[in-house]
Amino acid sequence: MNMTVVSQQGNFVNDVLTLQYYTVSFDAGDFPDHMAGTLQVTPDDGVSLASTQDEVKAAAQAKITKMIEAEATPTAN
After folding, report:
1. Alpha carbons 63 and 55: distance in angstroms, whole number
2. Taxonomically, which superkingdom (predicted)?
3. Cα-Cα-Cα-Cα dihedral sign, residues 27, 54, 62, 44
């Protein structure tokens, strides 16, 4: 899977810079199983302003995996 940490969004809260989210773009697989997109990785995903690019990518990978597993899980009608 190819991933790029595109940007970081933060805000000052009580004069302290606080992370809002990182934007990560991703691209994986080959047709017909290709998936690409952009997602936000937040402090709720275990990242902070001090996180490295690899840590942000790992959190994004975990979030993408959870989304795929949730999509693959059948729901009761």
Report:
1. 12
2. Bacteria
3. negative
pLDDT reported for residue 72 = 78
Q: Report, in angstroms and rounded to the nearest whole number, the Rg of the chain calculated over CA atoms.
A: 15
C-alpha 9 chain-centroid distance: 13
Q: What is the 3-state secondary structure (H, E, C) of 31-73?
A: CCCCEEEEEEECHHHCCCCCCCHHHHHHHHHHHHHHHHHHHHC
Q: Where are the domains of the chain?
A: 2-72
Q: What is the pLDDT of residues 6-47, one digit of tens each?
A: 999 999 999 999 999 999 999 988 888 888 999 999 999 999
Decide: 59 and 45 in contact? Cβ < 8 Å: yes
